[in-house]
Request: fold
Amino acid sequence: MAQHSTHPSGASRVRRRALLGTIALAVLVALAGLAAYLTREGRSPSDTPAPPPSSPTASPPSAAPSGPHTQPRALPVPPKTHDPITYGKAAAAALWSYDTRAYSQPELRKALRGWLTTESKYADPASVDQMVPSAVLWREMAANKQVATAKINEGHFPHTFTQALQDDPGAITQAYVYAVTVSGKQSIRWKGSAAGGAESRSTTLAVRCRPNHSCALVGVMPSVAP
Reply:
């Protein structure tokens, strides 16, 4: 007799759907990683950030490059919006910016965690922590008064997300988790640099926007969804 309830992958899919809904599942599974972030149980926030990316990222949104002699910038504050794309663009700008002259690495990490949803079963603080330069790297950057700013070009729902939404429009109401892909440019300057450097960046974020509540960040996806 055929068995229908013991197949591991089938059980996993049912569990994910129960937590996040069909739309979020389609996106997260396709990105091979964030599903684990959002469906884990009993995971406590990480107190130790993962190794930083090749180019350090994080902090207050900005539309233009900043030199080391400009006014220090405040820590990033999440916007009050019900639009997941607007929120995702602001979050990406915060994650791609920092000002080592204005605050410490722990202060930046705490501020970025403040963008996360307060519902612990969805929030993934470790994925945000890994966007912040390590304490050792931060000290080196601070010695050079390094500043990074972000210019956001655009934000959109990935194709896999919009396709899943078309297939089952009502499924999003189970978790209200949206995938948002953002692209832009990060500019970095430091003491003694005339021009600094810049590079294009893109990331896909998970954003939770419940009805009658401001949006909040769920986490940073491990890969970019087009």
User: Anything to note?
Assistant: The mean pLDDT is 77. The two ends are 42 Å apart (CA to CA). The first helix runs from residue 8 to 30. The CA atoms of residues 88 and 180 lie 6 Å apart.
